[in-house]
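Sequence in, structure out. Go.
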Amino acid sequence: MTLRIRLMLLVLIAMLPALAVIIDTAIEQHRHLKTDAQQSVLKFARFAVNYHASRVAETQQLLNLMAAMPQVRELKTHTCDALLKDLLFGNLNYANFGVIRPNGMVACSGVQTDAPVSLGDRAYFRSAVETRRLSVGDYQIGRLTNKPVQVIAQPILNAEQQVQGVVYAALNLDWLIRFAPLSELPPGSAITVIDRHGVILARAPDPQGQWTGVKLEKDVPIARAFIESGQGESSQEGRGIDGVQRIYTMARIGSAAESNGYILVGIPSQEINDALNADLLPRIAFLGAALVVIMLLAWFGSEALILKRTRILTTATRKMGSGDFGARATIRGNDEIAHLAAEFNQLGDALQKDYHRIRRLNRIHEVLSGINGAILRIRVRDELVSEACRIAVERGQLQFAWIGLIDAATGNIVRIAGHGNGEGFLHDHCVGTHSRADSGRCPCTVAIPEDRPVIHNDLSAGKDHAPWREQALAYGFRALAGFPLRRDGNVIGVLGLYSSEANFFEPPEVDLFEELAADISLGLEYIDKDQRIAHLLYHDALTGLPNRKLCEDRLQQAILRARHHDRYVGVVVLNVTDFHRRVGVYGHHVADEILNMIAKHLLGQVREGDTISRLDGDEFAIVYADMASMQDAIHLAQSLISGLPAVFHSANREIHLAIRGGAAIYPVDGEDSASLLGNATLASNSGKDNRINSVSFYSSEIEQTANDRVKLEEALRQAIKEGVGIELYYQPVVDIVSHKIVSLEALARWNSPEFGSVPPSCFIPVAEETGLIMPLGDWVLNSASQQIDAWRQIGISDIRVAINVSFHQLNRADFVERLTRTAQATMQNGQNQLAIELTESGLMNNIETIQQIGLLKKHNFTIYIDDFGTGYSSLSYLQRLPVDVLKIDQSFVSTLGQSESSDAIVRTIVALARSLKLKTIAEGVETQAQLALLQQLGCDYAQGYLFSKPKPAGEITRMLVIGDCLPRPDSVVHR
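Output:
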C-alpha cells in the first residue's frame, strides 16, 4: 500500500465522525417521526371509534323510536312492512329494518320476501330476548338482503316487561368509504373495522369488498396478538397482507366487558422514510462534496509536502541497499522527514565505516569454514596444522601464520607448521624459546604463559625499541596476535597471526580468531583421540600390551615369514590359577596391579621382535617368531614360565600366584594363528602338569581330552533334559554311640549309555563350569523331596536328607524361594526334613552369600559345612555363619591313629564345634579303629563304608525300617 493511499485513508478516517453524527441524527429523527406518526394514527383511530360508536348510538335511538310506533308494536305485517320500507328508502347507512316475533319468525321487513324467514338462530336475537337490552351483532350475511351487514337489535317490551318482539337495523358495512377524515390519511393508508371475533366488518380502501367477512389476521397478522391481549389501544409496525409495511394502531369499540369490535388504522412506513430522506439526503450530499474537495486537496498537497521528499529518501535507500554506501539523501528543513534523512545519512556513514570490517569478518568466517572442513577431512596432525596455516594466510589475507606446540620434555616452543612470509622472524624470535620466558621474544608467544589472546594492533606506534619490533616492521608486519591452543583446559601451544594492515585485530575479529584457535585445538584433540582409539583397538587398556586381535595378526605374519624361510613359531598361553577368586578376596584394584606386574615381568623376558599380548582377563600370550628349531621354542617357553616369580607384592601384602602355561609350535601344532592360539589355550587348560609355574605342550591327547570333555558335557545335558541315566543314591549318617540312622546324604549318580558309570568327580565340575549345575540341582531337590514324601507315606517321617548345594545355585536370586517352595512338602512339625550341605572352601570364596544362608536358616533348613578343615575358615566368619553341623573331611579321618596331626585336627574341630554348639559328622569312616577313636574324641555322628556305601532308595528303605546300622567287620568294607 503506497504512502499516498495511506494519506487518503487517513483523511477518510478523519471524516468518519461527521458521518457518524449524520447517521445518529437520522436515527433520532426517524424515531421522532415514527412516534409522531403513531400518535397521529392513534388519534385517527380514536376518532373512528367515536364515529362508529355514534352510529351505534344513533341506531339505538332509531330502534327505540321504531319500537314505540304502533305499526311495529302491533306486529301487523302489511302496515309494518310499509313503515319499514319508507324508513329504508334512500338511507345509505342501513341495508334493512325488520321486526322479529318472539318465536324468531320475521314479522315485517323493509326488504320484502315471499317466503317466511326465521331469524331465531341469530345471536343478536337471542341476546336481545335474553338480556332485554340492546344487542350488537357480529358480521353476517343478511338472509333478506343477502349483503354483509352488522345487525343492532332492540327488544320490544310490553307493560309487564315481557318481550313482545325484537326490532332490528342492519348496518351497511361500507360506511368507511364515506368516512370523511379518511381522505386526510397518507396514500396507502388503511382503516379496518372488525367485530369482537376478529372478522372484518369494513375496510377502506376495499372497492371490491374482498376483505369484508375475512378474518383480520389474514390482512394484518399482528392483530391476533392485540385481540388476545385484551388491551384498549396499541401501536405496532408490521406488514399487511397486501405486502405494505405500515405503522398500525388498534382501538377497541366499547368497554373490555362489552366490546363491539375494533378499529385498526395503518399508515405506510414509507411515508416516514420519505420524510426522513427529504432531510437526510441534502446533508449526505454536502458531506460527499466536502469529502471530494478534501481528498483532492490531500492528493495534490501530499505530493508537494511529503511524497516528493520521501522519494528522495527512498532512492538513496535503494542505492545503499544495492551496495552504494556513498549514497545520501539531500533534504533540507526542520521537519520529521528532514530529521529522518539526517539519521539515514549518519547510518550511511557508519555502514561505510563498517564495510571493510565486515569484509574482514567474512574472510575470517571463510577461514573458519575452511579449517573446519580440514578438521573433518584430515586425520594427520602435521597435515592438519599446515593446511590451517595455509587457509589463514590465503583466505584471511594475512601475511604470515604459524602454529607452535610446547615440547613436553624441554618446555620449549616447537614450530610444527607455518605459511607465508615470516619464517626468518619466527626463527629469530619465537621458535626454540622456553614457553615461560618473559623477555626478548615475539609477543604472540606470551599467550602461552598468560593463557589469553595477546594483541598488538599497531606495531609502528610502540615506544620501545625491542629487536622483535624492528624486525617485524622490516618484514611488513603492522599488527600481530597470539592465541593459546588448549587441550583439556591446559595450554599446549600457540597460534600466531601477522597482518600487513594496522588495526586488523578488532574485538569482533579477535572473537572469531579465538573460535579459530578453539577449532584447531579441537581438531588436534580429535586426532589425538583417534590415535588413542586406534591404539586401544589393538592394545589392552590396562597393561598397554597388544590385544587378541593384534596378537593374531602378528602371529599370522610370523607364520607367513616362517613358512617362507622354513622357520618355527612358538605360542605360549599363560593363565593365573584361581584368579577370579583372588579378585573377590583382594579387590579389582589389587588384581589390576598384579596383572600389570605380570605384564612388566614378561616384557623383560622376551626377545626383540617377539610379541606379548593380553588375551582376556588373566590370560596372556607370547609369540616367539623366527626360531630355528622346535627345541628353541621349547627352551624359550620353559625358560619363560620357570622365570616367573611365585610371589608378588601389592598393598603391603604377599600374594602367592600359580601360573600355568600351554605351548603350541608352528608347523607341528597348527598352520594358522587361530589353530595355534586355540591349541596353546587347550594345553594351558589341560591340567596334565599340575606343578606351579609349569608349561604343558600341546599334543593330540590334550585335544582328545578336550573333545571328550565336550562330548561328556553334551551327554550330561541330554541326560538332565530327558531325566534318563541319572539316579539319586543315599548314604546313612549314624549316631556313633547308638548306631541309629539319624540322616541321609543324597548323592547324584550318572550311568551314561556312552560313557558308562561316570563318577561325580568327573561330571559335577563339568556341570558347574557349564551352568548345568542349575537344572541338575533342581532335579536333585525335586527327587529328594519326592522320596521324603514317599517315605512318609510308609511311616518313615523322622529322617533328614542332606543335599549338596553349589554356590552357583546359592548365588541365584530366586534360589531360596524355589527351595522353600519345593521343601514345603517335607515339613515335619515345623522343621524341614531337607538339609543343605555347603563346602567350606566354597563358603570362604563366596563369603558374600552369608545373607542367603541366613534366609535358609529362617526357613528352618539345617545347614552342614562339608569337607571342614580344608578351607582355612576364619573363626570370625564361622561364628557369624548360621550353621548347624560340621562335617570332618575324610582326608583327616582316613589317617586317624596313624598321624598325630590328623588326630590333633579332628580333636580341634570337635572341640570347636562343641564350643559353638554345633554337631560333628566324620566322613569316610572305614575301620573299627577310626570309629573307636572318633567316639573317644567326642564326635557325634559317622558316615562311611564301615556302615554303608551309597545305595538306591529301595535298599535304603529296608535299612530305615530296621532303624539302626551296625558297623561291618573291617574285612568286608570295600569301597
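Check: The radius of gyration is 66 Å. The chain has a mean pLDDT of 81.
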